Amino acid sequence: MKLEYETIEDSFDDTTHIRTMTEQAPAPSNGWLLRTTIYSPHHMSVSVIHLPGGGGPKGGYEPLLT
User: Fold this and answer.
1) Could you point out which of 18, 49, 50, 54 has its C-alpha 20 to 30 Å from the C-alpha of 26?
2) Is residue 36 in a domain?
3) How many distinct structural domains can be found in the chain?
4) Which residue has the higher pLDDT, 64 or 3?
5) Are 35 and 45 in contact (CB under 8 A)?
C-alpha cells in the first residue's frame, strides 16, 4: 500500500545547508502519520509518528493542513 503524503513544512537553511521537511498522511487505521525528514550534506534522518484515532469532530485529531 502506498500512502499519499502532503507537505506541511519544507525549509532550507543557507548557512548550515540543512533541509527539513514534515509531511502528513492518513493512516489505514483511521489515524495520521507524520513524517519528518532531515537532510544534511552528510546524513539523512527520518522520524515517523503515528497519531491514533479517527478524524473529525467525533474524536481523534484533525489534519494539520487541509
Assistant:
1) 18
2) yes
3) 1
4) 3
5) no
Domain for residue 17, yes or no?
yes
Please list, in sequence order, all residues whose beta carbon lies within 8 angstroms of the beta carbon of residue 37, skipping any fewer than 6 positions away: 20, 21, 22, 23, 44, 45, 46, 47
> What distance in Å separates the CA atoms of residue 10 and residue 21, rounded to the nearest whole number?
4
Structural domain that includes position 21:
6-51
Q: Choose among 3, 11, 7: nearest CA to 65.
A: 7
Cell matching residue 23: 509531511
pTM to 2 decimal places = 0.72
Question: pLDDT tens digit string along 23-63?
Answer: 999 888 788 899 999 999 999 999 999 988 755 444 455 65
